[in-house]
Amino acid sequence: MGHAIRGSIQGAGLLVLVLATSCSSTTAVKNDDAGGVPQHANAAVAVTPLDRTRDVPTDTPILVAADGGTLKEVTVKAVKGTQGSLQGVLSADHTQWRSRGTAAPGASYEVTVTAVNAAGAVTRKTTSFSTVKGKETLAIESLMPSKDTTGLTVGVGMPVMIAFDKDVTDRVSVERNLFIHTSKPVLGAWHWFDNKTVHFRPKHFWPARTKVRVEARLAGVRGGPGLYGKRNQEIEFKVGRSQITRGSTNSHQLTVKRDGKTVRRMPMSAGQGGVWKYHTTSGIHLAMSREPVTVMTSPGIGPGSAGYYQMTVYNTVRISNSGEYIHSAPWSVGSQGYSNVSHGCVNVSPDNAKWFIDNTLIGDPIIITGSPRPLEPTNGWGHWQENWKEWLKWSSVKHFTTEDV
Question: Which residues form the catalytic set?
Answer without folding.
Answer: 327, 345
